[in-house]
Amino acid sequence: MIELHTHTTYSDGILTPQQLVDRAAIAGVQALAITDHDTLHGWDEAIAAAKQYQLEIVPGVELSTVHNGRSLHNLFRGGKVEDVLPELLAAGLMGLEVYHPHHGNNKVNRLKQLCQEHNLLMTGGTDYHGYDLEHPENERWQLNQLKLPLSLLESLQQLAR
User: Where are the domains of the chain?
Assistant: First the structure.
């Protein structure tokens, strides 16, 4: 299983990279992307922590990007991907986050279709920010709740080579 959208204390997450790696290993994650906002600082700590597990760290980052005055990572909540997709493709868009807890079946199917039509990578993750260590019952989304297969990572790895 893979988890490609997580945050640590280096941005707006609650867990340190070490704690996140520990939780990911317990949750059965085989490949974990640390995608903190606008920083790469958690990678080294996560890579070191993952050595004790059979866990691959996938370097990632969630960039704050604005398009026509709107944050791109929130752009498609209430809007249509198709409205800006041609411009994003021309700018070099390579993939879409297809799988996310906010995405219902219709949205997932629509995003998958767009990825197939435009030869885009499909990614996904829970946007995991951690949980209050003293009150884990308040956890918004669970790490690895989407149970995304390791095969989803293969196209990303091929592109990175």
Answer: 2-65+99-109+122-160
